[in-house]
Write a structure and sequence with these properties.
Blueprint (H helix, E strand, L loop, with lengths): L2 H12 L3 H4 L6 H16 L4 H8 L3 H17 L1 H16 L1
Helix pairs in contact: 1-3, 3-4, 3-5, 4-5, 5-6
Amino acid sequence: MNQRKIAKVTSDYFGVQLSDLQSPSRQRRVAWPRHICMYLADSLKVRKSDIGRFWKRDRTAVYNAVMRVEAAMETDKKLLTEIQDISKRLIRK
């Protein structure tokens, strides 16, 4: 599965333009879906350096995004449900 597909499905899910998702914006409405994309790519065993290259970030930024999503999933069951829903949509497409 490629990162472009992950980005497209996630942008559709959150109602964010794909161009906004790929922008350097730090607004929460854009950054959080981007973090989720990075988490999903990491969970599919894509190298952090490759994820960073796609999002124009360094691997440390990818690592921090993945850690934030994992930490949030421990306390927010709604987030866990959202990520599972996005994963199901990725499989269907």
